[in-house]
Amino acid sequence: MQYEITGDNLQMVTIRLAPGESIYAEAGAMVNMSGNVAMNTLMKGGLFKGLKRMVSGESLFVTEFTPQGGSGFASFAGNVPGKIVPLHLKNSEFIAQKDAFLCAEQGVDLDIAFTKRIRSGLFGGEGFVLQRMSGSGMAFLHCCGDVIEMALEPGEVVKVETGLVVGFDSTVDYSIAVAGGVSTVLFGGEGLFLTTLTGPGRVILQSMDIAKLAASLLPYLPRETSGR
Fold first, then answer.
1. Residue 69: CATH number of its domain
2. Is the pTM of the predicted complex or chain greater than 0.90?
């Protein structure tokens, strides 16, 4: 499998599939494909895993793309302005926020993961349910805005505004901390809580929170007015 990521802040990944290769993607992520690629909608992993994906806010079904009679290609993009991040798994696990998954090779298993602490689930911005990608192969994540990648050393800590964590290796500890003292909470403008990530492992962050983006656009959206 070969891939190419094109674009700047509205990126698209084009995946070239050899005969016998296939890739699956979240429903609605496909942009274009060659004429010989067949689409098949299925519940990857069976009904139980499909229902678990629904718990994480994803679709019950995924779409599988397989070329027929030779090589082919399929392209995928996210639903908000942002970047696409390739993720190469080698018998490893990666935990991502519930709407980050875009597509993956068949060797990558997609499941759900629960936050380890109740407080993290309540105030972490990602909720109790995250996505777990495991196995071996390529997976692709979609991030909102620009991307920051960090490799944390053992014990190294980074604190991030909630909602800006795309994902992290399963070796990274994930928790929530209060953002400073009372004055910081009341007047700092940074919210009540920060996500705390402790290494070792890879961390992927995004520069924009889609919830905050939507809230900032809300005052400018047309509203229905009732008149006599």
1. 3.60.160.10
2. no
Closest CA to 175 of 211, 199, 204, 148: 199
List pLDDT tens digits, range 122-135.
444 444 568 899 99
User: ω into residue 200 within 30 of 0, thus cis?
Assistant: yes
Amino acid identity of 153? E
| Rounded Cα gap, residues 80 and 207, in angstroms | 13
Distance CA 167, CA 64 (A): 24
Strand order through the sheet with 173-178: 157-161, 193-198, 173-178
The structural domain count of the chain equals: 1
- Beta-carbon contacts of 72 under 8 Å, excluding residues fewer than 6 positions away, are 16, 17, 33, 34, 36, 37
Range of the domain at 89: 2-216
